[in-house]
From TrEMBL:
Binding site for Mg(2+): V569, H571, V574
Residue segments, region Disordered: 1-30
Protein name in the entry: Acetyl-coenzyme A synthetase
Modifications made to the protein after synthesis: Acetylated. Deacetylation by the SIR2-homolog deacetylase activates the enzyme.
Keyword ATP-binding: yes
Natural source organism: Antrihabitans cavernicola
Entry binding sites for CoA: R204, R205, G206, K207, T327, N351, S555
Catalysis performed (reactions): acetate + ATP + CoA = acetyl-CoA + AMP + diphosphate
InterPro entries named among the record's database cross-references: Ac_CoA_lig, ACAS_N, AMP-bd_C, AMP-bd_C_sf, AMP-binding_CS, AMP-dep_synth/lig_dom, ANL_N_sf
Biased composition annotated in UniProt, kind: Polar residues: 1-13
Gene Ontology, cellular component aspect: cytosol
Annotated ranges, domain Acetyl-coenzyme A synthetase N-terminal: 31-94
């Protein structure tokens, strides 16, 4: 072991045990794992009973599509069927049944608009509005199986639109409202959407920005070539003036808002497609990930209940994701609403009007469960702890993290400053493809380590293997994946060796790519390849190291970008860091780092760069010492807050930039190039 700083991810770190009080009242106890170990499929059948089924299923799992096959031509479909023959309605499960059970007056959504407007929506009101939308979508001729694109900011109508689609068996495809017209067009065409739902504009940092304009541009691109879209349904949000195409465009307030509030939900097959969602595109052309109904909702509901220890009617929950990301689908819409959650939905950025916004909202509603991404936690650190400390955050009792590995420094800060040194942190690993959380502590069961996702959830099976599929826990087989772990840990590829209910059912329109991307690498064994590296430490705790194509190879040593980044942000002057491997004549790859400094950092320039290099060298190993460190004002990120390392690699190697369509702000590159 070489980790020397207290925040180095050194596995000798003390464990954070759940408090006895938390443990005593937790939704999930050790019996959950025991039940899953005893009979995995019976366990999932029990979880499915959390939902209302119009028709029961006859078989929990049909995995005949998943048998291993060696020759490409004989390879199976890898499409699972869960809860075979069962029928249910997702919207009924998320809305109607809570009203029928007598909870119609419970608030479902505390909406906070960026300009300061707010609105509380009860479950009864939500039911009325979802019914209106369902009635209108039926009136314009949409039928189960049709696709609908949703291109909207974080306002209640976005969630209502998703639920109305689910209610009618329409497959929705939510596209981030920050994406460009061409990114929207690409997704609309790929799914052949018949309807686009949007807004006139959106509030962003105190200003109204156009949105419908982007839809017009998208639909008329390429000289208005024919496409599938028949209607554009527009919610008025900002009162911006917009262009109008008669016959095609319709206002929400003139149609949906006038429709009947009565609508009876029909059941759909457990395998009916619920949504398509394009991955964030960190590694290339986005993939249209397809999710279905019964298994997806089962795992969404199960994980939300147990991982966040959510108590219906008591907790106030806030997931800060955007619905354009899978986290917004599963942990704003489907998981929480299926569990009768009262939740905050916030439209804007965390520093509008100032950096206190999130903590004002936590105080205002008494938020008890807060779920966000490491990138935002590091931003809060950069702004300084005096900001959250100016607020009463005592309502918070569970903290969650998702999106990338959380560096131990940020983990500790999160627990100490936001969680008052007592709220358990659940670091949740999952992907668009997995549909729901797969690896995470259970807050009343698992003793946690800063930076580790710890263990797969009950009912989920993972392995960490080498290139041949050998389990790395057989110590002889260990792959030398990163220097920090060498000699003390078992490192390899993260694979899912058993199907799970919320697993993707394919890539829309491209089942060959589906097989090639996820099933080819371990075709012989029939395992799903997640694309991420992971390791067990000597206590058996699981650490996710990030995507394997972000792993660098320096003089034959495999070094994970996330470990070097974690070391850099462990230095007191650094707020954020992104690391890439750039080709190097002598070492194969050289480590190039881009860092953002904390506002308070006085020491800058060459002296700091030298100091940072020495810091990484000492914290990890001299092999991990960056060849170059560039101090930059911003890093290129996707809307879900992920650093686009492949674009930084383009910069480091002096190439033209690749696809930037999913970046929040492609202009950051001007600053980054200027800083080099
Ligand atoms: P693309 O697949 O198009 O490149 P993406 O992988 O960034 O995009 P997502 O499905 O949103 O799109 O992200 C899933 C990935 O995020 C995981 O594979 C993993 O690399 C990372 N990730 C998510 N949560 C965690 C976590 N808790 N710890 C470590 N990594 C995480
Ligand atoms: Mg991915």
């Amino acid at each position: 072991m070489t980790g020397s700083s207290p925040d180095s991810g050194n596995t000798a770190t003390a464990l954070f045990e759940p408090s006895p009080e938390f443990r005593a009242d937790a939704n999930a106890g050790p019996e959950l794992q025991e039940a899953a170990d005893k009979d995995r499929l019976a366990f999932w059948a029990d979880q499915a009973a959390r939902l209302h089924w119009h028709e029961p299923w006859s078989e929990v799992l049909d995995w005949s599509g998943g048998a291993a096959g060696a020759e490409p031509a004989e390879r199976p479909s890898y499409v699972a069927k869960w809860f075979v023959g069962g029928q249910l309605n997702v919207a009924y499960n998320c809305v109607d049944r809570h009203v029928l059970d007598g909870h119609g007056d419970q608030v479902a959504i505390h909406f906070e608009g960026e300009p300061g407007d707010s609105r509380n929506i009860t479950y009864s009101e939500l039911l009325a509005e979802v019914s209106q939308a369902a009635n209108y979508l039926t009136e314009i001729g949409l039928e189960a199986g049709d696709r609908v694109a949703i291109y909207m900011p974080m306002i209640p109508e976005a969630i209502i639109s998703m639920l109305a689609c689910a209610r009618l068996g329409l497959t929705h495809s939510v596209v981030f409202a920050g994406f460009s017209p061409s990114a929207l067009r690409q997704r609309v065409d790929d799914a052949e959407a018949r309807l686009v739902i949007t807004t006139d504009g959106q509030w962003r940092r105190g200003k109204a920005a156009p949105l419908k304009e982007a839809v017009d541009e998208a639909l008329y691109a390429n000289g208005g070539t024919p496409h599938s879209v028949e209607h554009v349904l527009v919610v008025r949000r900002t009162n911006l003036e917009i262009e109008w195409t008669d016959g095609r465009d319709v206002w929400w307030h003139e149609t949906v808002a006038k429709a009947s509030t009565e609508h009876e939900a029909q059941p759909f097959d457990a395998e009916h497609p619920l949504f398509i969602l394009y991955t964030s595109g960190t590694t290339g052309k986005p993939k249209g990930i397809v999710h279905t109904t019964g298994g997806y909702l089962t795992q969404a509901s199960y994980t939300h209940h147990n991982v966040f220890d959510h108590k219906a009617g008591k907790d106030v929950y806030w997931c800060t994701a955007d619905i354009g990301w899978v986290t917004g689908h599963t942990y704003i819409v489907y998981g929480p609403l299926s569990n009768r959650t009262t939740q905050v939905v916030y439209e804007g950025t965390p520093n509008s009007p100032d950096e206190h916004r999130h903590w004002n909202i936590v105080e205002k509603y008494g938020v008890s469960i807060y779920y966000t991404a490491p990138t935002l936690i590091r931003t809060f650190m950069k702004w300084g702890r005096q900001i959250p400390q100016a607020h009463d955050l005592s309502s918070i009792r569970v903290l969650g993290s998702v999106g990338e590995p959380i560096n131990p420094e940020a983990w500790r800060w999160y627990r100490e400053v936001i969680g008052a040194n007592k709220a358990p942190i659940v670091d949740t690993w999952w992907q668009t493809e997995t549909g729901a959380i797969m690896i995470s502590p259970l807050p009343g069961v698992t003793a946690t380590k800063p930076g580790a996702a710890m263990a797969p959830l009950p009912g989920i099976s993972v392995k960490i293997v080498d290139d041949e599929g050998n389990d790395v826990t057989d110590s002889e087989k260990e792959a030398d994946f990163s220097v920090r772990s060498a000699g003390s840990a078992h490192v390899g590829y993260l694979v899912l060796d058993q199907p799970w209910p919320a697993m993707l059912r394919g890539i829309w329109g491209d089942m060959e790519r589906y097989k090639a991307t996820y099933w080819e690498k371990f075709a012989e064994q029939g395992w799903y390849f997640a694309g991420d590296g992971a390791r067990y430490d000597e206590d058996g705790a699981l650490w996710v190291l990030g995507r394997v194509d972000d792993v660098m190879n320096v003089s034959g040593h495999r070094i994970s970008t996330s470990e070097v980044e974690s070391a850099l942000v462990g230095h007191s002057g650094v707020a954020e860091a992104a690391v890439v491997g750039a080709s190097d004549e002598t070492t194969g790859q050289g480590i190039v780092a881009f860092v953002i400094l904390k506002g308070s950092t006085e020491n800058t320039g060459d002296a700091l760069v030298t100091e940072l290099k020495a810091h990484v060298s000492k914290d990890i190993s001299p092999i991990a010492k960056p060849r170059e460190i560039h101090i930059v004002p911003e890093l290129p990120k996707t809307r879900s807050g992920k650093i686009m390392r492949r674009l930084l690699r383009d910069v480091a190697e002096g190439r033209e930039l690749g696809d930037t369509s999913t970046l929040v702000d492609p202009k950051v590159f001007e600053d980054i190039r200027a800083a080099r």
